[in-house]
Amino acid sequence: MWKWGKKVIYTFARHLVKIILSLFGRLKIHGKEKLPDQEDGGYVVACTHTGWVDILWLGIAIFPVKIHYMAKIELFKNPLLKWLMGKLNAFPVDRENPGPSAIKVPRRLLKEGQVVGIFPSGTRTSEEVPLKRGAVTIASHGKAPIVPAAYVGPNNFKDLFRRIKPRLIFGEPIYADENLPRREAMEKMMEELNQALNKLQKEIK
Predict the structure, then answer these.
(1) By three-state DSSP, how is residue 43 classified?
(2) Following DSSP, what letter does each residue of 45-108 receive, concatenated?
């Protein structure tokens, strides 16, 4: 019953948010066919992050596949928000003091064939910043590919009312090189992810 209720709330929230956001401009999606088949296992979506709107559009874009977001632990301190975040498949991460759960929870989700959403820049900025190792570490430990994604469009309420058109592009999945030691494979994966995101950002503009 709990899982059924969670599924209903997630689906309802997705449709409601899509209706509201679409009033300001419909999302144009490129490369969705590159997303791996979930029957082959879970995967990580690593998307650029410039505001709160991209989080919503990313979840809408890959539906009916459900995405599990890493969310800052502060959002779970309020009982109502904690309940809602849980229903929306988000899980808390203490970014100041990341513990074992920062890897344990997404690793379990990937093993179950779920999709984990991560914003590797770790910050809401349009400036180029070094990618954090979180996405690569999680994908490596979960033996899952990373799908790079880039978003351009409204970032906040002001942008929405300006009716800036949203666009989202997905790149080819990135797999760890099994012929290399884990550390070297992760470094290579990190470099490929960085290059892929830079390329997608240029293509989507």
Answers:
(1) strand
(2) EEE--SSSHHHHHHHHHHTTS-EEEEEEGGGGSSHHHHHHHHHTTEEEE-SSS--THHHHHHHH
Cα distance between residue 43 and residue 60, in whole Å: 17
**Residue 86 carries which side chain, given as an amino acid letter?**
G
Residues contacting 49, CB < 8 A, separation 6+: 55, 119, 121, 123, 124, 125, 151
Q: What is the DSSP string of 146-177?
A: EEEEEEES--SHHHHHTTPPPEEEE---B---
Q: Is 118 helix (H, G, I), strand (E, B) or coil?
A: strand
Nearest CA among 112, 118, 169, 170 for reference residue 143:
112
Count of residues for the chain? 205
Q: How many domains does the chain have?
A: 1
Domain containing residue 188:
2-204
Q: Which is nearest to 51 in space by CA: 199, 175, 164, 193?
A: 164
DSSP, res 36: P
Q: What is the pLDDT of residues 5-59, one digit of tens each?
A: 567 777 888 888 889 899 999 999 999 999 998 888 899 999 988 878 888 899 8
DSSP secondary structure letter of residue 199: H
pTM: 0.84
CATH number at residue 162: 3.40.1130.10
